[in-house]
Specification:
The structure holds 2 protein chains of 2 kinds. Chain A is mainly β. Chain A has one domain: Beta Barrel (Porin). In chain A, 10% of the residues lie in helices and 51% in strands. Chain A contains 4 helices and 17 strands. The longest helix of chain B has 18 residues. Chain B has one domain: Periplasmic binding protein-like II (D-Maltodextrin-Binding Protein, domain 2, 3-Layer(aba) Sandwich). In chain B, 37% of the residues are buried. Chain B is globular and about 35 Å long. In chain B, the strands form 2 sheets. In chain B, strands 1, 3, 4, 5, 6 and 7 form a 6-stranded mixed beta sheet that branches. In chain B, 43% of the residues lie in helices and 23% in strands. Classes of the chains: A mainly beta, B alpha/beta.
Chain lengths: 411, 136
């Protein structure tokens, strides 16, 4: 979205709210700014040159929200973000939606809304809302944020009390994803296939989120599912591994169909200041040659399409899980300890260090003041499987670490 | 006498739980789930009347309120509201430092703006406010 549109929305938000004289109907302005330092050993991780120590991880958000009347609410947030080579600290509309309460229990948000997936995904940018510095990377990889952060469409939500059985919550959502051009997967594709026009089109996304919480709030369980149906455009024969004797541009809708299904299940247990949570994610991407591509190629080469149905034979499923213990004392200091595991390809051996990564993570959070937070985090990894191509080098050591420091101010 | 003192000490947390009272700027009846939903940003109105919650910043009444109605400690409560705020779902309740400040705020509000809701451990009903009947 252009800067002009973002400025227009900001001004409109303030102007709309100022029409209402009532004190609590006026728009509220909030914001945050954070600076992160990352230092990895043995390899770059998350951002380029993190092995040398990098501060190229900064975020600033401005948030305006208001309620013209109690049943209706609008909210928008402009985000300036730099994450290594992504973002460039350019302003983007992070979310912007209109929220209408249909009943006391059910409501709907329309616009650019957060992607409700698992326990952490929609809150992954809210540093002040959690103890850990990074969301759990075995399930919420930071490098996949552009694919997972928000959708343009609808989010129907609701909750129902179940007497002594606690409370049920649900979300149903659908729309499309506007995937940024500097998403690492897109840039990798462009570089690998020498195809500057390559793009991913997240045309349709939909899913559901269900949760249950006990009456005393101490136990909760969640299940969520999301399906993405999109297309990939590439102008290169390299994609076919040399299998085709012709060069053919593959445009949207006519080349490769991308289907991604993801399932996340989680449980939480609170014991006063202590919390124990676990989540499991099964990630199922598949890329298929479309019928249009097959027939075009067949007619050009005068023979049957030679490459089957799925790119890479359809063997790209991965899974990840974690167990996290947090101590959340009312005082300024809180901490978390977690173990996580990630397997990049379920058809290959999970004991292969190139296909597997486990991590022990220790996090500390110190609330310096009501608005200022300092965080420190240490990860010890065993295994080389990561989400970004540049970090998987079979010659590198399997044991490596990541240290991170962050300062966040929010108001 | 010593046994009586021990008994009183043991019962004191229960006394604390029972002594928390909710006050509103207009007559109001709520159940415990509604109180929790209002203070967690899930419920904005009751019987089509807007409800505007007010919280204490800290103190014993706030601790008792969080423990018995919200099931979170003060850090968890603050973090919950950071999440709600920075995902655009709801705006946090107005917080006040003193119970008297809360009473004053509620008294000053016009009923056209809805019903303002507050809690305290004060034994006497503040003038001009209505005690909220909260059913378990």
């Amino acid at each position: 979205m252009s800067k002009i549109w973002i400025r227009f929305l900001l001004v409109m938000g303030l102007a709309l709210g100022s029409l209402y004289s009532s004190e609590w109907l006026r728009p509220e302005l909030h914001g945050f700014i954070s600076q992160t330092f990352l230092k990895s050993t043995k390899r770059d991780y998350l951002i380029k040159e993190s092995s040398k120590g990098s501060i190229n991880y900064s975020e600033m958000g401005l948030n305006i929200s208001g309620s013209p009347e109690p049943r209706y609410r609008y909210s928008l947030q402009v985000l300036f973000r730099e994450f290594g080579e992504e973002g460039g600290f350019e302003p983007t509309l992070d979310f912007g939606f209109f929220d209408a309460r249909l009943t006391d229990q059910i409501g709907v948000r329309v616009g650019k809304v957060r992607f409700p997936l698992g326990i952490q995904n929609e809150y992954r940018d809210v540093d002040a809302g959690r103890i850990t510095l990074l969301p759990q990377q075995s399930i919420y990889p930071e490098s996949f944020r552009p694919l997972m952060i928000n959708i343009q469409g609808l989010d129907l939500y609701g909750h129902q009390h179940l007497g002594n059985f606690g409370e049920a919550n649900f979300r149903l959502f659908g729309g499309s994803i506007d995937i940024r051009d500097d998403f690492f997967f897109t840039t990798t594709m462009r570089n690998s296939f020498n195809s500057p026009s390559s793009e991913i089109d997240g045309r349709r996304v939909g899913g559901a989120w269900m949760g249950w919480e006990s009456l005393d709030g101490n136990f909760s369980a969640y299940a969520s599912f999301a399906a993405l149906r999109g297309f990939i455009s590439v102008e290169s024969t390299d994609l076919f591994n040399g299998g085709l004797p012709i060069a053919i541009p593959i445009s949207m809708d006519k080349g490769l169909r991308l289907d991604v299904d993801t399932f996340i299940y989680g449980i939480e247990h609170h014991m006063n200041d202590w919390s124990l949570r676990a989540e499991y994610n099964h990630f199922q991407p598949s890329t298929e040659y479309t019928e249009e591509l097959k027939s075009t190629v067949s007619s050009m080469i005068g023979a049957a399409f030679p490459l089957g149905t799925e790119v890479n034979g359809g063997s790209d499923d991965s899974y990840g899980w974690y167990l996290e213990l947090t101590y959340d004392h009312p005082g300024p200091l809180s901490g978390a300890l977690s173990y996580s595991d990630y397997v990049a390809n379920t058809t290959k051996s999970s004991s292969d260090p190139g296909n597997h990564r486990e991590a022990m993570t220790f996090s500390l959070r110190y609330d310096i003041s009501e608005n200022l937070i300092g965080k420190a985090e240490f990860h010890r990894f065993d295994g080389r499987a990561v989400f970004k191509g540049f970090a998987t080098n079979t010659n590198q050591d399997r044991i490596w670490t990541l240290s991170a420091l962050r300062l966040t101010y929010s108001f | 006498m010593a046994k009586l003192l021990v008994l009183l000490l043991l019962l004191s947390p229960l006394y604390g739980a029972e002594s928390l009272c909710f006050y509103a700027s207009s007559p109001l009846h709520l159940d415990k789930n509604q109180v929790r939903d209002i203070y967690l940003g899930k419920l904005f109105q009751v019987k089509k009347i807007p409800i505007r919650p007010v919280v204490l910043f800290e103190g014993e009444a706030h601790k008792v309120f969080l423990k018995n109605y919200i099931f979170k400690n003060s850090s968890q409560f603050k973090r919950h509201w950071k999440k709600m705020l920075f995902t655009g779902k709801a705006s946090p309740p107005i917080s006040v430092d003193q119970e008297t400040e809360g009473y004053k705020l509620l008294s000053s509000k016009d009923s056209k703006e809805g019903i303002w809701l507050f809690y305290s451990m004060g034994k006497e009903k503040p003038e001009g406010l209505f005690q909220v009947d909260v059913t378990p």
